[in-house]
Each structure stands twice: as structure tokens, then as C-alpha cells.
Design brief:
heterodimer, A: 114 residues, mainly beta, 5-stranded antiparallel β-sheet, globular, B: 7-stranded mixed β-sheet, 4-stranded antiparallel β-sheet
Chain lengths: 114, 110
């Protein structure tokens, strides 16, 4: 049972355009959501997060939108740059026994074309 | 600022051999610590987490164990490795709601 899904394994976007990465979740207990960027042979790098009490969070070129009723979140990158090419993971979180437990999606490989 | 160190970066071990991966965090006190694994073609899966020294919780039954001998040290171990233990192992820490990862260890069991 996959609780967090990223249905697009890959996405190709032209430099300067908007990249939109999507993520769906099934468990209503998740109350915090995070996006990570990952390069090969490296650990994921935290990008941006959003609490379930909000519907939007913005940080520079990155904006995360949360639609709780649809159990859907998305990451917008604008304008897209070649350095944004990487695998992006969304993660849904809940606090269990004092620990932050993340459930990850399968990832979306974003390629920015010059 | 906080940093996380994880070593070694790569490891090739024969089936049946022991394993010890170490992770240390600097610049923070009493963090929550985690071990994740990414198997080939799959997402990251939580293996263990710890909210304090000596406190370990396991998420999935497996051939591995974890220990936290000091506040900022987290160790992943196995007495006898299996082929299925191959993967990319990541240590992580959190304070408040953000979780930050180390650079990982690529383990290949042959």
C-alpha cells in the first residue's frame, strides 16, 4: 500500500519555464509535507515544506501548494534553471512516539533543457 | 550550523560478513536520528529511528539493527549480511519538523 505517490517518473521542461511536480497521498494523519531534491550518489537535500494548516508556502523560486481535500500537493519551480535537473521526492510526515516519520514518494526525475 | 557525517561512502561486503555504518551529527543537541534505505528503483524507506540515547524503534523486520551510544551518534549494524541488504543507506536527523540527510553509504553485498 503506497501512501505517497508521485505518478510521473520523469518530467522535461524548457529552461525559463515553470516546472510543476505533483504528489498524492492517502493517509489523513499526515500533517506536514516536504520536498527534497536528490542528485546521484548523494543524500536528499531539503527544499521546502508546508504544514497541513496552510495551503501555500513560497521560498524564492520554489512554491509548494497543498490541497487537503484532494490529498494532493505540488511543487512549482519558476523560472526553471539547468541546475534544477535532479530527482525530486515528496514526503509526508506524521509525529509518532516523538519522532518525525517520513513516507516518501517514488520520485520524479526533472530535466531542464537549455 | 548543523552538519551530518556518514561513512563510508561506498562499501562492498560478502554475504555473511558483518556490517557497521556510523553517523554523527554536529551543531545540535538531542536530535531525533533516523536510518533510511533506498533499494534499487524504489523510494526511501524508514528502517530505524531514535528519540534519545539508547532508544531505538524499528520500522520493518529485517536483518539489521541500530544503536545510539551517544546523543549525536547513530550506528547501523548487521551480524551477517544478506544479498537483499544491498542498497543506499542514509542517516538523517531532525529538530522540529525538518529532516536533513547525510550523503549516504552505497552498500553492495556480493
Amino acid at each position: 500500500d503506497q501512501q505517497v505517490k508521485q505518478n510521473s517518473p520523469s518530467l522535461s521542461v524548457q529552461e525559463g519555464r515553470i516546472s510543476i511536480l505533483n504528489c498524492d497521498y492517502t493517509n489523513s494523519m499526515f500533517d506536514y509535507f516536504l520536498w527534497y531534491k536528490k542528485y546521484p550518489a548523494e543524500g536528499p537535500t531539503f527544499l521546502i515544506s508546508i504544514s497541513s494548516i496552510k495551503d501555500k508556502n513560497e521560498d524564492g523560486r520554489f512554491t509548494v501548494f497543498l490541497n487537503k481535500s484532494a490529498k494532493h500537493l505540488s511543487l512549482h519551480i519558476v523560472p526553471s534553471q539547468p541546475g534544477d535537473s535532479a530527482v525530486y521526492f515528496c514526503a509526508a510526515s506524521s509525529i509518532i512516539q516523538g519522532a518525525q516519520k517520513l513516507v516518501f514518494g517514488q520520485g520524479t526525475r526533472l530535466t531542464i533543457n537549455p | 550550523s548543523q552538519t551530518i557525517h556518514q561513512w563510508p561512502a561506498t562499501l562492498v561486503q560478502p554475504v555473511g560478513s558483518p556490517l557497521s555504518l556510523e553517523c554523527t551529527v554536529e551543531g545540535t543537541s538531542n536530535p531525533n536520528l533516523y536510518w533510511y534505505r533506498q533499494a534499487a528503483g524504489r523510494g526511501l524507506q524508514l528502517l530505524f529511528y531514535s528519540v534519545g540515547i539508547g532508544q531505538i524503534s524499528s520500522e520493518v523486520p529485517q536483518n539489521l539493527s541500530a544503536s545510539r551510544p551517544q546523543d549525536r551518534q547513530f550506528i547501523l549494524s548487521s551480524k551477517k549480511l544478506l544479498l537483499s541488504d544491498s542498497g543506499f543507506y542514509l542517516c538523517a536527523w531532525s529538530v522540529l519538523r525538518e529532516v536533513h540527510f547525510g550523503n549516504g553509504t552505497r552498500l553492495t553485498v556480493t
